[in-house]
């Protein structure tokens, strides 16, 4: 009966992707694979077991299948599975059939095991497992082949399928329950470790890829595999058996970025299923490893040593989460206790969380750092079932309970058909909250109660009071090091300061308390290619979140962040004693001199600091540095062993004889050494250094394990700066200056953390969210272990060389009069003797001259100047050379014509607003003339531009961008595009939102963006409808629905793992993926981001090509690259590395007159490009001709390269890295150390795929419900005849209404149809994005409920949602729509009879909405429209809200606590006022459309009701309204009554 | 960065000049002092560009945005430090530089440039006034001895830099005054000589030995020179003037501009000349041949002599007022320009070629000239000059001054004795480290690069000093100069790695 193929299917049609080789030689880093998914639970709260529960959960799984994904083989999924209680009846029978007699229930356990297909290996593994069990006194009973149907699954899944067997074991005498589980755990770990130790390259496939324990427990069992949701039941025969019963079942459908999913990566894991991503994973794993030495448990006894390593090697983030969860649970903690430790709520500074709960979190925070990242985790130990949502609520989770006590939880509503009358209530899991199903008590225990129970376990608060110290508890030190202005400059030189550091970074931070802003991109050399001394920090590039998890907005959503850290010696993780919190809590990690002096002066069990000098004799050179490193590590280790709790790595005392080990190197060395020697949790690292001065420096130090930093020289520098008169940069007195500076650092670091989606500093410590660029692999392995580093480079010798070079400048034998003591820098602004820049006087001038006069000879000079600059050690591509074979050369006229090639060009996403209208339109005209693409950027587009000019020119950008702010993203905007680009990240500031200063929001810009003129605009760091890869797939689907002719692009930024993301994007059906380099331009970004975030496109593009080709995903997606591409040589290299298309932005602006003033953020662009100032705009002198000339030059230049290499078409050359070689530099001491071979690895493709874009994605639009809707509404669309229909709807019907709106907008523009022309009623559960971009004239009514993104981008339509007929619950107490409703709406109305989730009306700019209760972050970033919340509202309401008005019911007068007053004020409403009338009419409409009893109650006693409301009024909006009123009054006074329309702004705007 | 919106609020405004009627009667400089607030307001126009093309336009790489900002904020002392970091003699370039930085200023794309040169002068003068410019001798001496031959701006700069690096410097000057053309060539109304002298005094106080009236090669043999010094810097300028060997050249009243100008400068210093020696324009019809700056200097000098009429001929066409399209920003504009001297009178005539000097009694009385046209060259090279038929004309002249530039340095004497090689134009040929074929003998300034601007001379002198220091010591901490080859920081390892 068992069908176990022992050989891979010989008929497999395709090569199975095998990424091993490309991981070794290429750029693929398996560590960066991501997944996220749909999670579902069905449970009978009463504890009754049934097969129906399993059946229903599998139905849920199937209905979540659109959240999963498929690779190049449509029948091979990314994984699906189910976890439930061990079904005794079934097992007993099944075992018997296999010849095994089972003991009574509870006395045996079943293991679900993947085993190698190879018979010999399998036998070996089985033997090891049997032995491991027997050795622990567990009697082995036998094996059973699990019956499966391999034909039910995809070819590729089948090819890599392991043998699947169950083992049966008997509990030892006297061992039951947890003790039994613990013994099983130890035995399993022993078996796993034994097998891991046997791994050789030959047996790797069998022992690593195939061997795996899905579960081994007396309580639960897991059936999973590389399956699609609907295959689970067909594949596993067992699941169909009626005797399979359980009280609950947990299911999971996986969407992963990688293609060759692996069987073992499917969820659920042994205790949990997870939708999300642990951003702090690298740190968590390291900390866990470090902690292993201190683990002690009576329960385990000596066995505790056998479970190391706790975290399985080569595992996913969820696997590690599961591993540690398992350990803690085995150690005696309950599931909820364990979860509260690992994924704590945001407790720090919470305004209403009970103190004892905060104490609980703080106490446990001292033992374990948060596992931070978007997470919905459903967990169980077989007896208890729970779920927790991360502090940000970044994953949806809806649940509902029936009257017969069945609980259904899932990522979506509507996944299980349940008649409305059976529903008791519908709810959702809220951010940071947990709930538990207590099967004993037969009820759901809500978060408050769970936490109350946990907080009451021990007197945590008292323990903290007695043991935990704050800085102010420490003794006042005798002496505090002060400012020494005499030597400050000398030391600045020694520590590599430049004048720019002081003037552009440190000074403004001290003056304003914020990080300075700059503009345009980075065009300076990589650290390893610069010929000037580099600080260690510059070799590290910040990583950032894109697609698979969202970055945070630490400014607007500060409530989830925490910069306080506990420091000191960590106690045994299993203990719960008062001394476990014997730690020092630093409320922020940047120490002033006095703070550090206190720490050094203290001598308590919690705080005993040992200062370790990082200096070494300069005369000893690089050897001296190496010796110092060894010494520092030893001293650190020894100090920890001696009982010191803090290690202060100090470089104080640099003098003419002594220089320092770079503090980052020292920190990395100590951190990793102590992890290896398992002393790391015995002491924390504090840095006392003259080096750190800018945000990036601090971020790297924290990222590699420093807990606190005293930047003494930066602080002293403030005193020096204050002595210079400068009214634009007034440095306050020292105390305030230091305060401001530290504040700016902390804010800046928080921003760096939030780019990666990490919200607590404690989680960020040691999380190593960086990629090293240009450091030797040996150095990285030794001191920055596990850091991604893909081009090897310099070692200690070169690093020491730079430090010594600075030292010798600081301490020369004699001073040379008139010499500048401090280096100029020239990193941010070009200087003749400063750092090199690709854009310099020569390149700018030559390009302008060549393109203006269309002079090929001058263009030639430009190419030469630009390429020389690049080759002179600025870029990676400069280090590459073409391989020409004279025999392959072909005549130029055989090469594809330039007019065809130019169509592959695009200009960058530069918004109208960031640049002037003139510039924006000139670019569009130019690109349209040559059939290429210009890009709107994130600023909307004037509808006037959709009509061509009389001369035939079109000012409409073919590419329309959809970014996180959704400014001006209307239905009409979307249909007037051939390409729609989803901006996930921007090269100059990946992981951050956009910002455009208020002075650039002119009336016109405000009109286009539908925002208030003069008010700064913020684009959120994340798209609030993209928190995961499946969300992105959803937005792609939305956009494809509204404009199916347009290609959908996803814009990513290069970083390690971008290729893996690109694979996910390809699987998510994007038509184009753009890999942006780190060096692209910007209108305004923090300088830290411009310089230190992201990586060059060469790396990202090569990785993308390798991963896509190896996975057979390449042909169905076009790849574009951009980021300082400026010459045809750049274009040719991009093509050879794998780009079908190329983006050019800065250079295009230069042809229009940009001279790199880098003043975009100041609105003072003197050439009229990056400004909205009317006088400056007049100075714009660019022409479309110049742009066209330039792109033709580029294409012609490319043709010459093609001819020389023998390529007739561009397609032929794409991905041909074999035509590139690394140039051996003979003149650069560092560049010679570079190794680019991993970039130049040629990937192996899969049959049927191509290495360039060759086929279209299958978007599956044919299934859209809108086809039916459009058919039914035909008369209305064409003849405006009213249409009214009713349809059934399911959660699998996604994006309903978008296609219809596309049709209407194409025909009627944004004006749409007369109100209510098309009226549809839908019955059932609406899928995601219901009513997206709904056009005016369409009214959709839902009787049922709806999922996330309800009314996304509402564009004039009307939405009504009410509970289904027959439901008996109270609508206003129940959830009816999901998260992020009405995001980015540009018009229309919505009436919601019930509650919504988090982030209601985020970035609403015009919609009018009434709802009966909402979650956190309501009306965030709202810029217009009206919102009435006539029920409860969550925390952080109105953050970043700069326009529109919200009315919030506040009957118990508590709203002020939950309201974010950063941008708006709260006002009361007077009865009879205009506000009151407006609110009343909204509530009246709501009552009319939904029959809301809440509305009726409020209206019944209106004068009293109105007093219970608060009005949320954005301050800027109020100011602008006031100004307008004053202006109007003035006009009236002067008799000038009619208001002149402002330039370009239609009077009705 | 100056004032963010400064350039939008304030236009370019130079300090006032003295009236023509007043200034043609004396030899003093023509600019009136600048109010501090005006200077600061002008400096506030600077945009602190991402790419300061001015910094690139300045051969010295002056840190223009830096000091504009400092001046705007009234931080004059820091401004002079920043200025001295790249320029030894800002009070010279602040007066007599054609300021290539200004047409490179990004504002000139559609506005008037920042008054960079005047701000430079204001900084320097403020610094002198405040006593901030003091002798700055080196802290230690290397023990090396270097000779700098020729005390023009290149030699002065080289000498000061070499001395700062700690070498013992001897500066040789064959005339009786230190400063070369600064002292003797440039008229006082452009550069008053006390301005040069106070610098010379500073250099002496810093420990530089100056030997005037010493013609190396005559007064001291080159062998002795090479024996006495560890290295030699040749900075004798480009002194052989271009002649016009046509009929009548030998007539009296025809002089090289430099003879005319130096005599006046000497006269201003109190030296007296016999009537036979005296060259004056008083009551004369003066014709200056050559339309450049030296010609303009002659013109200003002639007016101050009380010339009857002054005519300046240029063989090239009159440049246009607008930039030609092939000469876009930020290139040096090939447009018509007038110096302050041209305000004072005189006639400028272009496309004029002198065919013959006609005289009476051995004295020049008349020039016979013809108009020329410039036709595009058939082979793509320089345009061909063609005489316009029938355009011959004559003009009266009692004094003719040749201001047609210089060919190369004087070969006979010092250079030939040293045995240095020459380049194709007759200048001293050097390698990338500015060393001639003779080991330890370096060259800079006009002697090395041919006739050029004072700003180039200073830059070249600074660069040469650095090269010599490198050569002498193996490394150098003297600063590099923009506009020259990228720095070689270390002699032994040219790869740039620190030893």
Main sheet strand line-up of chain B: 3-2-1-4-16
What is the count of β-strands of chain A?
52
Query: From the structure provided, what is the oligomeric state, counting identical versus distinct chains?
Result: heterodimer
Structural class of chain B: alpha/beta
Low-confidence stretches of chain A: 1-14, 1536-1549
Which radius of gyration of chain A do the C-alpha atoms yield?
Answer: 32 Å
**DSSP strand content of chain A:** 15-25%
Structural class of chain A: alpha/beta
Q: State the helicity of chain B in percent bands.
A: 25-40%
Number of helices of chain B: 19
Considering DSSP H and I runs of 4 or more, what fraction of the residues of chain A is helical?
25-40%
Mean pLDDT of chain B, rounded to whole units? 93
Distance between the termini of chain A: 73 Å
State the total count of DSSP E strands of chain B: 16
Mean pLDDT of chain A: 92
Q: Give the strand content of chain B.
A: 15-25%
- Main sheet properties of chain B: 5 strands, parallel
Provide a count of the helices of chain A: 48
Silhouette of chain A? globular
Shape of chain B: globular
């Amino acid at each position: 009966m068992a069908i176990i193929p022992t050989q891979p299917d010989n008929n497999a049609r395709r090569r199975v992707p095998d990424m091993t080789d490309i991981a070794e030689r290429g750029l693929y880093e398996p560590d960066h694979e991501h997944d996220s998914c749909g999670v579902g639970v069905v449970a009978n709260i009463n504890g009754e077991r049934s097969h129906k529960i399993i059946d229903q959960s599998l139905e849920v799984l199937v209905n979540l299948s659109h959240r999963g994904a498929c690779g190049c083989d449509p029948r091979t999924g990314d994984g699906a599975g189910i976890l439930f209680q061990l079904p005794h009846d079934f097992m007993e029978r099944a075992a018997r059939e296999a010849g095994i007699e089972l003991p009574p229930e509870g006395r045996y356990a079943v293991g679900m095991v993947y085993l190698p297909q190879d018979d010999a290996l399998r036998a070996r593994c089985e033997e090891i497992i049997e032995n491991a069990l027997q050795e622990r006194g567990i009697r082995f009973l036998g094996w059973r082949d699990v019956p499966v149907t391999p034909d039910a699954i995809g070819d590729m899944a089948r090819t890599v399928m392991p043998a699947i067997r169950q083992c049966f074991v008997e509990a030892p005498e006297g061992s039951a329950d947890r003790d039994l589980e613990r013994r099983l755990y130890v035995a399993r770990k022993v078996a796993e470790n034994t097998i891991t130790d046997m791994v050789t390259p030959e047996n790797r496939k069998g022992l690593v890829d195939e061997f795996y324990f899905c579960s081994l427990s007396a309580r639960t069992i897991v059936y999973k595999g590389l399956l699609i949701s609907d295959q689970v039941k067909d594949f596993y025969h067992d699941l169909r058996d009626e005797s399979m019963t359980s009280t609950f079942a947990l299911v999971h459908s996986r969407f992963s970025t990688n293609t060759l999913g692996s069987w073992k990566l499917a969820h659920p894991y042994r205790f949990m299923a997870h939708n999300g991503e642990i951003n702090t994973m690298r740190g968590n794993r390291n900390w866990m490893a470090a902690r292993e030495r201190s683990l002690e448990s009576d329960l385990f006894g000596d066995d505790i040593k056998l479970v190391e390593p706790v975290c399985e090697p080569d595992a996913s983030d969820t696997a590690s989460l599961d591993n540690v969860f398992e350990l803690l649970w085995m150690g005696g903690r309950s599931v909820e206790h364990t979860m509260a430790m690992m994924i704590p709520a945001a407790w720090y500074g919470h305004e209403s969380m009970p103190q004892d709960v905060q104490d609980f979190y703080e106490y446990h925070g001292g033992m374990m750092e948060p596992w931070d990242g978007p997470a919905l985790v459903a967990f169980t130990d077989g007896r208890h079932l729970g779920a927790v949502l991360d502090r940000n609520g970044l994953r949806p989770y809806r649940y509902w309970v029936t009257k017969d006590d069945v609980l259904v939880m899932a990522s979506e509503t509507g996944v299980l058909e349940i008649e409305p009358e059976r529903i008791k209530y519908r709810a959702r899991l809220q951010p940071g909250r947990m709930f538990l199903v207590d099967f004993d008590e037969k009820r759901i225990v809500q978060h408050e109660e769970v936490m109350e129970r946990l907080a009451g376990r021990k007197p945590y608060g008292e323990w903290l009071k007695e043991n935990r110290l704050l800085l102010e508890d420490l003794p006042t030190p005798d002496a505090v090091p002060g400012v020494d202005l005499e030597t400050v400059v000398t030391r600045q030189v020694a520590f590599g300061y430049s004048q720019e550091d002081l003037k552009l970074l440190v000074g403004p931070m001290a003056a304003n308390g914020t990080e300075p802003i700059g503009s345009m991109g980075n065009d300076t050399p990589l650290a390893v290619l610069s010929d000037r001394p580099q600080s260690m920090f510059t070799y590290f590039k910040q990583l950032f979140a894109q697609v698979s998890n969202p970055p945070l907005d630490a400014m607007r959503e500060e409530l989830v962040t925490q910069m306080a850290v506990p420091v000191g010696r960590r106690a045994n993780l299993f203990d719960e004693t008062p001394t476990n919190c014997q730690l020092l809590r630093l409320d922020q990690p940047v120490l002033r001199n006095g703070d550090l002096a206190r720490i050094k002066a203290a001598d308590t069990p919690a705080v005993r600091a040992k200062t370790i000098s990082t200096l070494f004799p300069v005369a000893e050179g690089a050897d001296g540095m190496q010796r110092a490193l060894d010494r520092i590590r030893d001293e650190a280790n020894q100090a920890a062993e001696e009982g010191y709790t803090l290690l202060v790595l100090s470089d104080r005392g640099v003098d003419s004889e002594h220089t320092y080990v770079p503090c980052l190197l020292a920190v990395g060395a100590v951190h990793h050494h102590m992890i290896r020697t398992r002393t790391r949790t015995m002491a924390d690292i504090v840095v006392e250094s003259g080096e750190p001065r800018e945000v990036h420096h601090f971020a790297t130090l924290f990222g590699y394990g420093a807990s606190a930093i005293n930047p003494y020289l930066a602080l002293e520098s403030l005193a020096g700066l204050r002595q210079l008169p400068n009214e634009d940069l007034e440095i306050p007195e020292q105390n305030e200056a230091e305060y401001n500076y530290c504040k700016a650092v902390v804010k800046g670091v928080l921003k760096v953390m939030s780019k990666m989606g990490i919200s607590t500093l404690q989680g960020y410590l040691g999380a190593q969210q960086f990629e090293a660029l240009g450091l030797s692999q040996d150095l990285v392995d030794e001191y920055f272990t596990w850091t991604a580093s893909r081009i090897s480079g310099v070692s200690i010798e070169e690093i020491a060389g730079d430090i010594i070079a600075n030292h010798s400048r600081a301490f020369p034998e004699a001073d040379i009069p008139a010499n500048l003591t401090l280096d100029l820098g020239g990193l941010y602004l070009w200087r003749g003797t400063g750092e090199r820049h690709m854009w310099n006087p020569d390149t700018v001038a030559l390009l302008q001259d060549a393109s203006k006069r269309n002079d090929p000879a001058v263009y030639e000079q430009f190419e030469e100047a630009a390429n020389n600059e690049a080759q002179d050690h600025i870029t990676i591509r400069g280090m590459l050379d073409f391989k020409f074979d004279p025999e392959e050369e072909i005549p130029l006229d055989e090469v594809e014509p330039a007019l065809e090639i130019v169509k592959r060009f695009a200009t960058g996403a530069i918004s109208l607003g960031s640049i002037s209208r003139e510039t924006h339109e000139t670019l569009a005209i130019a690109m349209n003339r040559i059939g290429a693409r210009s890009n709107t950027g994130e600023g909307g587009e004037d509808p006037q531009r959709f009509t061509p000019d009389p001369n035939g020119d079109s000012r409409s950008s073919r590419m329309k961008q959809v970014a996180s702010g959704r400014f001006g993203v209307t239905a009409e905007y979307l249909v007037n595009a051939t390409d729609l680009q989803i901006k996930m990240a921007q090269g100059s500031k990946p992981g951050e939102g956009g910002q455009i200063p208020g002075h650039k929001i002119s009336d016109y810009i405000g009109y286009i963006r539908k925002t208030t003129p003069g008010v700064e605009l913020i684009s959120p760091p994340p798209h609030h409808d993209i928190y995961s890869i499946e969300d992105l797939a959803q937005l792609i689907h939305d956009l494809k629905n509204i404009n199916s002719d347009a290609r959908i692009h996803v814009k990513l930024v290069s970083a390690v793992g971008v290729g893996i993301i690109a694979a996910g994007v390809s699987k998510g059906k994007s038509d184009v993926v753009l890999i942006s380099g780190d060096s692209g331009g910007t209108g305004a970004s923090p300088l830290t981001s411009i310089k230190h975030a992201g990586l060059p496109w060469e790396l990202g593009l090569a990785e993308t090509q390798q991963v896509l080709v190896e996975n057979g995903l390449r042909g169905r997606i076009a790849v574009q690259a951009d980021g300082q591409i400026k010459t045809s040589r750049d274009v040719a290299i991009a093509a050879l590395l794998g780009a079908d298309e190329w983006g050019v932005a800065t250079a295009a602006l230069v042809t229009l007159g940009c001279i790199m003033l880098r003043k975009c953020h100041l609105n003072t662009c003197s050439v009229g490009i990056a400004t909205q100032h009317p006088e400056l705009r007049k100075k714009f002198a660019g022409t479309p001709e110049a742009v066209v000339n330039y792109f033709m030059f580029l294409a012609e230049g490319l043709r010459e390269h093609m001819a020389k290499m023998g390529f007739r078409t561009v397609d032929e050359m794409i991905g041909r890295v074999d035509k590139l070689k690394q140039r051996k530099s003979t003149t650069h001491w560092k560049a010679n150390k570079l190794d680019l071979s991993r970039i130049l690895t040629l990937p192996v493709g899969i049959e049927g795929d191509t290495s360039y874009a060759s086929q279209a994605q299958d978007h599956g639009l044919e299934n859209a419900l809108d086809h039916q809707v459009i058919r039914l509404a035909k008369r209305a669309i064409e003849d405006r005849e009213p249409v009214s229909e009713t349809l059934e709807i399911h959660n699998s019907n996604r994006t309903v209404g978008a296609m219809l709106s596309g049709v209407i907008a194409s025909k009627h523009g944004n004006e749409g149809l007369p109100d209510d022309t098309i009226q549809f009623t839908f019955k059932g559960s609406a899928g995601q994005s219901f009513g997206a971009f709904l056009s005016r004239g369409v009214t959709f009514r839902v009787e049922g409920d709806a999922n996330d993104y309800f009314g996304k981008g509402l564009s004039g339509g009307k939405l009504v949602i009410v509970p289904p007929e027959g439901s008996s619950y109270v609508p206003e107490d129940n959830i009816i729509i999901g998260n992020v409703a009405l995001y980015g709406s540009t018009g229309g109305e919505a009436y919601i009879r019930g509650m919504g989730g988090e982030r209601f009306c985020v970035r609403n700019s015009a919609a009018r909405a009434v709802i009966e209760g909402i979650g956190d972050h309501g009306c965030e970033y709202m810029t217009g429209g009206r919102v009435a919340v006539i029920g409860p509202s969550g925390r952080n309401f109105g953050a970043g809200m700069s326009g529109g008005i919200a009315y919030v019911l506040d009957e118990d007068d508590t709203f002020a606590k939950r309201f974010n007053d950063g941008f708006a004020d709260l006002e009361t409403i007077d009865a009879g006022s205009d506000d009151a009338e407006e609110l009343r009419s909204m509530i009246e409409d709501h009552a009319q459309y939904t029959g809301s009893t809440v509305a009726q109650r409020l209206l019944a006693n209106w004068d009293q009701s109105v007093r219970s409301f608060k009005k949320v009024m954005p301050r800027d909006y109020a100011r602008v309204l006031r100004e307008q009123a004053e202006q109007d009054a003035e006009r009236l006074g002067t008799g000038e009554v009619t208001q002149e329309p402002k330039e370009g702004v239609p009077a009705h705007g | 960065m100056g004032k963010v919106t400064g350039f939008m609020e304030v236009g370019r405004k130079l300090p006032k000049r003295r009236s023509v009627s007043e200034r043609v009667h004396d030899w003093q400089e023509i600019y009136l002092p600048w109010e501090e607030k005006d200077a600061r307001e002008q400096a506030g126009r600077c945009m602190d560009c991402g790419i300061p093309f001015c910094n690139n336009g300045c051969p010295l790489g002056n840190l223009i945005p830096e000091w504009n900002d400092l001046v705007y904020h009234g931080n004059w002392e820091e401004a002079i430090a920043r200025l001295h970091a790249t320029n030894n003699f800002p009070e010279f370039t602040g007066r007599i530089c054609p300021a290539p930085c200004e047409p490179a200023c990004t504002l000139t794309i559609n506005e008037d440039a920042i008054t960079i040169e005047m701000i430079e002068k204001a900084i320097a003068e403020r610094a002198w006034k405040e006593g901030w410019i003091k002798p700055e001798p080196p802290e230690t001496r290397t023990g090396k001895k270097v000779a700098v031959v020729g005390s023009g701006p290149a030699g002065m700069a080289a000498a000061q830099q070499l001395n700062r690096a700690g070498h013992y410097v001897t500066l040789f000057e064959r005339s009786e005054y230190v400063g070369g053309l600064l002292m003797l060539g440039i008229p006082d109304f452009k550069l008053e000589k006390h301005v040069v002298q106070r610098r010379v005094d500073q250099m002496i106080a810093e420990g530089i030995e100056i030997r005037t009236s010493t013609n190396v090669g005559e007064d001291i043999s080159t062998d002795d020179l090479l024996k006495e010094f560890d290295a030699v810097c040749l900075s004798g300028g480009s002194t052989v003037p271009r002649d016009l060997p046509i009929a009548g050249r030998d007539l009296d009243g025809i002089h090289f501009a430099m003879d005319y100008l130096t005599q006046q400068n000497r006269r201003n210093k109190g030296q007296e000349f016999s009537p036979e020696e005296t060259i004056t324009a008083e009551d004369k019809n003066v014709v200056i041949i050559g339309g450049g700056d030296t010609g303009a200097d002659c013109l200003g000098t002639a007016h101050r002599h009380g010339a009857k009429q002054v005519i300046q001929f240029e063989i090239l066409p009159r440049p246009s007022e607008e930039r030609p399209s092939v000469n876009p920003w930020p290139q040096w504009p090939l447009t018509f320009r007038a110096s302050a001297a041209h305000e004072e009178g005189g006639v400028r005539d272009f496309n004029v070629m002198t065919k013959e000097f006609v005289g009476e009694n051995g004295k020049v009385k008349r020039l016979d000239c013809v108009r020329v046209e410039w036709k595009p060259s058939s082979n793509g090279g320089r345009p061909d000059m063609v005489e316009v038929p029938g355009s011959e004309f004559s003009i009266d002249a009692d004094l003719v001054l040749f201001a047609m530039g210089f060919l190369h340095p004087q070969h006979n004497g010092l250079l030939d004795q040293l045995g240095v090689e020459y380049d194709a134009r007759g200048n001293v040929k050097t390698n990338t480290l500015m060393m001639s074929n003779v080991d330890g003998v370096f060259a800079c300034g006009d002697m090395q690069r041919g006739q050029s601007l004072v700003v180039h001379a200073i830059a070249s002198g600074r660069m040469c000093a650095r090269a010599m220091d490198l050569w002498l010591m193996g490394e150098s901490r003297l600063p590099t100069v923009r506009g020259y080859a990228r720095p070689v920081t270390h002699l032994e390892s040219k790869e740039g790695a620190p030893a």
